[in-house]
Amino acid sequence: MEKYIEKLKLSAKPAELSELTVNKENETLQAENPLVVCCITLGKEPHLGHLFLLAIAEQTKSALGGDLPVILINNNMGPRAAGAVVSLAEAWGLNLAEAVELMRAGTFPVSEVVERYRKRSEDVANIRTVNELIRSSGVDVFSVVAQETEQALKQAGFGVEIASEAELQLVSGDKVHKLNSMWSGSGFLPFVQGGRVVTIQKSGELTATGALFVATQTLIDATMADLAVLVDDKAEVGDTAFVLSEKEGQERGVQIFGAGVSFAGKIASGTRGEAMTIKKILGEFGKHRPAEKLKRATVYLTLTKPMLREENMLSKRGHIFDFVNNEEVITALVESADACDLFEEQIAEEMENLATKVGEKTVVKNKKTQKFANHLAHKATALRTGEPARVLAESKRVVDGVRQNYYFNTLKGMLKFMTDLDTISKDDFVQVGLMIECCLTRLGL
Amino acid sequence: MIKKPMEKTPNTPLFEKEKLIQAVYAEKKGRETYGENPFTCYVNIDSPEPDLSQITATLLDELSSRPREAFLWTKAWDKSVVGLNPKETLGCHLMEGVDTRGKLYVPVMTTAAAAVEQMVSLLPEGDLAVLGINTEVFTVDAFLICYLHLINELIWDITIADSGGGRPSVSHYKQAVESVAERGFVTVFMTEDEILETKLRNPQTSLRIYGSMVNKYVPKIMGAVIK
After folding, report:
1. Rounded-to-integer distance, Cα A120 and Cα A127, Å
2. Residues contacting residue A1 through CB under 8 Å, at least 6 positions apart
3. Quick check: B1 pLDDT over 50?
4. Predicted pLDDT of residue B211
5. Least CA distance to A15: which residue of chain B?
6. Which of A270-274, A318-322, A350-354, B95-99 is predicted with the least confidence, judged by mean pLDDT?
7. Residues of A in contact with B53 (CB under 8 A)
8. Is residue A93 less than 8 Å (CB to CB) from chain B?
9. How far is A188 from chain B (nearest CA, A)?
10. Which residue in B46, B85, B130 has the most chain A C-beta atoms within 10 A of its own C-beta, making it the best mutation to test that interface?
């Protein structure tokens, strides 16, 4: 008689491929209309760590070019946002729907919203009810913090726009089920590609990655962006970039690492961190230099200040900017604003010096510089056309603790080139001028 | 036709039912009652309608090829995780709890009804026992957890029967696994009341209760092994 296990093996089906089939013919990076995205929970006021994150985002946006502003997705959904609403309802004796509506309307001051976020409730049933209210109406329960943040960022010189995740999800339509038709509707939705699994939905709810993917894809569809650059170290950011690219078969999503902040080696960002809020930094910085220079001061700091590896800290994900304390941060930002001005002045001076060297032809002092001079026109064209793949690859590099920037490095190279010249032809002088102008624009200072 | 939880109308008087559950809970049959299970069985699936024949065959293969580990696993209430790992073959993989390969499995957590009846209907039939699974189970992950626990219940029942009242050993266990692999079983769906009534009528029936502290779709009474 045939054994039962043999019958089982005979009746077993051959395995089917559940990966999404994508056309991988075109893998060239396109970034004519790039979209740079960050995601912050505005249940509390953004702090110094977020300031650096946004400066890196601005730096990346400027380097890639395009017309779209940096978009900050206000993470105002999920158990933490709902927990803040429940806490507020309990504190003020409101029913949950009233609390949601009053928070949407910005009735409570920022301090109260932050207080409720810090003391957020863990009542599962109420959190579920509030989640559903937020999901079905798409309201922003952190609207008051979002408004104040947008205003502070504008004053600081940032061009960041804030988008509500709840609203993006409400208008998103079905963005996830086509990622895996086999699991669609089961309440669990994995995105599987190349042996890697990213969980988009589990237990019937979008995961953090799923929510970020939906919000980003909705923004991409609305702006017709051809590349989404997500700035942050978080795992869900990397997973979202992976899904955006792999579902299309070409690089449509890229992760750029952010940077943490520490005081004397101790993490200063996060809910219990001591780092100042952006609003406070703006106030303190504004006592020394014009407030609208804060963005360029921060961007310049991210271009020049060496970072520490987070090896001996809580997270080993990336790099951190270390300061003694909040006072030193302000000093560093003021110094950075001055250094940035000086850097631009130096470039202007070098251009004036170069104008005195204009002659019949370009004559250089050493062979290496000659090679650069020979290809000047070609390099100038490439620089002005934009090289997104090189720009992004460079921004992922850290040399001696300093984040690299393609245009900043080019600019430093150009300064060296200019001092190495004996004479420069009129045509080459024009090319150098255009290259420097392009670099300064793409630095976004 | 599988009944959904809300449709069920229990007939067994509540008091009697609770007494029965308490009695079943007390019936450890020589299994460990403390500590973490040193092993975990990862059930690798790639769709919400996995191939039950393959899962059953790989489970029995795994248990018979590694009887020492499998014995300890079953003795400690056979912990299983239903997951997805495209880098591993489909079906069951018994691993040590500390094995980092376990982290490669993404736990499957569904909420929708799966075609569990259809899956069961494709299984070949055996004659050693009947596995009666609670009709309340409707998600695929909850179903697989119940199904694997009931197969283990059957194996453990045979193990202790073969040990003749003595201390069950690895060799008894290995023989039990071989016996299940040779003769097999039939899987059916039963209501909770049918399961409890079967146990009341026939004390030799083994019930399996409290299947999962994690998956809320696994019912308190998972099913029965009827011999």
Report:
1. 10
2. none
3. no
4. 75
5. B90
6. A270-274
7. 7-9, 11-13
8. no
9. 5
10. B46
Integer Cα distance of A425 and A435 in angstroms: 15
Domain membership of residue A85 (yes or no) is no
Q: Flag if A5 and B60 touch (Cβ within 8 Å).
A: yes
Residue A435 CA to residue A414 CA, distance in Å, equals: 8
Residue A22 has pLDDT above 60, yes or no: no
**Is residue A18 in a domain?**
no
What ipTM did this prediction achieve? 0.88
The pLDDT, as a whole number, for residue B12 is: 60
Tell me, yes or no, whether A355 lies in a domain: no
A273/A266 Cα distance (integer angstroms): 9
- Does any CB of chain B come closer than 8 Å to the CB of residue A9? yes
Cβ separation of B111 and A18 shorter than 8 Å? no
Mean pLDDT of A31-55: 95
* Chain B interface test: which of A2, A3, A4, A242 (most B C-beta within 10 Å): A4
Answer whether residue B196 shows pLDDT above 50.
Answer: yes
Enumerate the β-bridge partners of residue A320.
A260, A308
Q: Are residues A286 and A159 in the same domain?
A: yes
Tens of pLDDT along A90-148?
Answer: 999 999 999 999 999 999 999 999 999 999 999 999 999 999 999 999 999 999 999 99
Cβ of A187 under 8 Å from any chain B Cβ? yes
pLDDT digits (tens, 9 = 90+) for B86-115: 999 999 999 999 999 999 999 999 999 999
Which of A9, A190, A203 is closest, CB to CB, to B106? A190
Mean pLDDT of A347-368: 91
Q: What is the mean pLDDT of the segment spanning B60-82?
A: 96
Query: With left for phi above 0 and alpha for psi between -120 and 50, is residue A178 left, alpha or beta?
Result: alpha
If we measure between CA atoms, which residue out of A364, A367, A365, A376 comes closest to residue A433? A376
In this prediction, residue A272 has a pLDDT band, given cuts at 50, 70 and 90, of: low
What confidence score (pLDDT) does residue B7 get?
A: 45
Question: Which of B62, B108, B120, B183 to mutate: most A Cβ within 10 Å?
Answer: B108
Contact B181 A187 (CB under 8 A): no
Pick A4's closest partner by Cβ from B48, B87, B183: B183
Tokens 């894809």: give the residue.
A217
Q: Smallest Cα–Cα separation from A172: which of A212, A208, A140, A202?
A: A212
In terms of CA atoms, which chain A residue is nearest residue B128? A4
Residue A232, domain CATH = 3.40.50.620
Q: What is the domain range of residue A247? A: 32-76+140-184+202-337
Contact of B85 with chain A, judged by CB distance below 8 Å, is answered with: yes
Within 8 A of B90 by CB-CB distance, chain A residues are 15
CA distance A23 to A248: 7
Helix (H, G, I), strand (E, B) or coil at A200: strand
Contact status of A66 with chain B (Cβ, < 8 Å): no
Planar angle of CA A69, A261, A48, nearest 5 degrees:
50
Residues A275 and A372 reside in one and the same domain: no
Same domain, A171 and A302: yes
* Rounded CA Rg of chain A: 25
In a domain, A372, yes or no: yes
Average pLDDT, chain A: 91
Q: Are residues A388 and A325 in the same domain?
A: no
CB contact under 8 A, A12 and B112: no
The pair of structure tokens assigned to B80 is 């299983």
What pLDDT, in 10s, does the model give residues A100-110? 999 999 999 99
